[in-house]
Amino acid sequence: MAGEKQETPWPLPKFRFSVDIGGQTDIGFQEVSGLDAETQIIEYRSGNSGAFSTVKMPGIAKYSNVTMKRGIFIDDSTFWDWYSQITMNTIERQTVIIKLLDEQGSPAVTWTLANAWPTKITATDLKSDGNEVAVDTIEIAHEGLTIS
């Protein structure tokens, strides 16, 4: 019934989230994707092993680039300015914090990207017969993903 306390908790919805990049907090994005972590596999077989198979061990961690989409605003070139700083392996790396918010607006799950920097920016497509909001896409590389 409506208004009754639930016996078991429900999963969190994914539509309420916020992003902090460097010193900027609560940047509004339409979509965040690519929060992936993978560990490469090292196969090893000792020369004196009696087994006719390899042993699999964890190797180097690998992280996917994170893609974020947000609406274009007048006089806001923050991401283009950040991207334009890339020259000969020099870029201002930032800590990016992505927070999934609960019903009260408090962070329930937090993903932190270490040493993040933009690798690709895609401007919106333009259509004379469209009625969508103009959206920029930024792809960010990083060196570590922690979840809390």
Structure report:
This protein has 148 residues and is mostly beta strands. It has a single domain (17-36, 64-147), classed as Pnp Oxidase, Chain A, CATH 2.30.110. 4% of the residues lie in helices and 47% in strands. The protein contains one helix and ten strands; from the N terminus they run ββββββαββββ. Strands 1, 2, 3, 6, 7, 8, 9 and 10 form an eight-stranded antiparallel sheet that branches. Strands 4-5 form a two-stranded antiparallel sheet. A hairpin with a 2-residue loop joins strand 1 (17-21) and strand 2. The longest helix is centred in the middle third of the chain and has 6 residues, at 78-83. The mean pLDDT is 88.
What is the fold's blueprint, element by element?
Blueprint lengths: L16 E5 L2 E4 L3 E3 L3 E8 L10 E9 L2 E6 L6 H6 L10 E8 L5 E16 L12 E7 L3 E3 L1
Antiparallel strand pairs: 1-2, 1-7, 3-6, 4-5, 6-9, 7-8, 8-9, 8-10
What tags apply to this protein structure?
148 residues, eight-stranded antiparallel β-sheet, mainly beta, extended, single chain, Pnp Oxidase, Chain A, two-stranded antiparallel ribbon, 10 strands
Instruction: Pick out the low-confidence regions.
Output: none
The CATH topology is given as Pnp Oxidase, Chain A
Order of helices and strands: EEEEEEHEEEE
Share of helix, binned: under 10%
The DSSP helix count reads: 1
N-to-C CA distance: 33 Å
Major β-sheet profile: 8 strands, antiparallel
**Secondary-structure class:** mainly beta
How many structurally independent domains?
Answer: 1
CATH architecture: Roll
Mass-distribution shape: extended
Radius of gyration: 21 Å
CATH superfamily: Hcp1-like
Strand content: over 45%
CATH class: Mainly Beta
Q: Let me know the average pLDDT.
A: 88
